Amino acid sequence: MSLRIYNSISGQKEAFVPLKDGEVQMYVCGVTVYDRCHIGHARAGVAFDFVFRALSYLGYKVTYVRNFTDVDDKIINRAAEREISCDELVKENIDAFYEDMDSLFLKRPTHEPRATQYIPQMQEIIKTLIAKGLAYQAGGDVFFSVNRFPEYGKLSKRNLDDLLSGARVAVNESKNDPLDFALWKAAKPGEPKWPSPWGEGRPGWHIECSAMGRELLGEVFDIHGGGKDLVFPHHENEIAQSHGACGKPPVRYWMHNGFVNINKEKMSKSLGNFFTIREVTQKFDPEAVRLYLLGTHYRSPIDFADGYLAEAEHHLDRLYAVAHRAEKMLAGTKGEMPPEMEADFTQALEDDFNSATAMAVLSETVNSLNAECDLIERKKGDVKKAASLFAALMEIGGVLGIFNRPAEQYLNLTRKKRAAEIGMSEEAIESLIQKRIDARKAKDFAEADRIRNELTEKGIELKDSPKGTDWSILAR
Asked: Is residue 301 situated within a structural domain?
């Protein structure tokens, strides 16, 4: 099987054939930095970080571009509300963006352009569109003429008549047609502005990605990604202006991640179920948030709820616990991923980056490794087999973006957190375990069982071995 990607423009999975053999050029729409990032941004960030890692694992040299929109109505309005400059607001939110995305262990893209760094390139595209009769000046504004581009609507599967009848188009008397969109906006008092052939002003939102994509990846590149909310109008408009300027489709494969729902309702500030990444990661381990997001295929909607994140944390606890157990047991013995496991994992990646299936392979690996460690403790296991399974666990985990911390460090921190959640200190738990050990030595098995049951009721699982008794918290 070779890599197949669901292409939003064709509505089906297609064999992936890059423009340059062995190389991939990928552009993903970033954030408008007027506020803190929310959990929808986390979904897109983790989804395309996984795609980036998967493509690299599959042997491609990837050039990954993710932009910042740093000039926009929202930025201007928010800066005015807070009585600070747009530059101050932008810097503050870009710094916060990195803190949030770094906490989710996203790899940094190859390029992270800011829109305001590419004003000249935007103006060149606009000049070309005007020269071709695809755009026109109206006062100090410049608009793209949608009805002059016959393929408009191909990505979003909409036609011009439906769009007009919907009439959900901003009214602007200077437009030739209500569907036309701004490429350049005339300056208003107090707003950021740049000189241009059409007078001082600033770019429209859509033109920035066309300019940055073309400058950093070329007129045509392999993959363009973003959330489903960007399909229309942003990506539809981007296609129109890029295709119109260069005379050919600018992107080979369009990828879009699904929406995030909160407790089965659409995430919305008006519904009061709008959460920033920082709010979520203060409550749940960021790596568990990542693990949960990857448990659903990137194209599918995902439901976000505390209960699901709690389950993800306990899943992460087990992954680290087994990794730590194997690490200590193998004492540096090296191994390579078993061929059958590598084949299953690769197949998951090649099936439109199916992270859910990849997670299933990870779970199978953990179970097999834990079982082999059990056998080794009973002098019946195969250290070389365990080393191969451990290598598989680390390699698969690396592509999924987990195991970012030393296992012992993670487990020590987590024990304190879990113990506090059930209202017990680590010392109190250890004291009860020692009393149970003393009861067993004294052959007072009734008391030993009572203590185990008491701990079990609190969600504490005990694991006895020749080396002693270990514990973990599996429920809250």
From this structure: no
- Report residue 77 as tokens: 């309005």
Total domains in the chain come to 3
> Same domain for 316 and 256?
no
Shared domain for 197 and 330, answered yes or no, is no
pLDDT for position 475:
40
- Could you tell me if 247 and 356 lie in one domain? no
Give the domain extent around 350: 306-407
CA angle 192–197–203, rounded 5-degree value: 40
In a domain, 285, yes or no: no
SS3 content of the chain, % helix, strand, coil (to 5): 50, 20, 30
Q: Which residues pair with 350 in a beta bridge?
A: none
State the DSSP string of 122-173: HHHHHHHHHHTTSEEEETTEEEE-GGG-TTTTTTTT--HHHHHHH--S---T
Q: Which of 127, 149, 131, 242 is nearest to 196 (CA)?
A: 127
How confident is the prediction for the chain on average, in pLDDT? 93
Residue 457, pLDDT score: 85
Claim to verify: residue 80 and residue 208 sit in the same structural domain:
yes
Six token digits for residue 11: 């509505």
Model pLDDT, residue 167: 44
Are the C-beta atoms of residues 473 and 459 closer than 8 Å to each other? yes
How far apart CA 193 and CA 203 sit, in angstroms, is 9
Residues of the chain with pLDDT under 50: 167-169, 475-476
198 in the same domain as 87: yes
CA–CA separation, 210 and 220 (whole Å):
10
pLDDT score recorded for residue 422: 79
The pLDDT tens digits of the residues spanning 234-245 come to: 999 999 999 999
- What's the pLDDT score for residue 166? 54
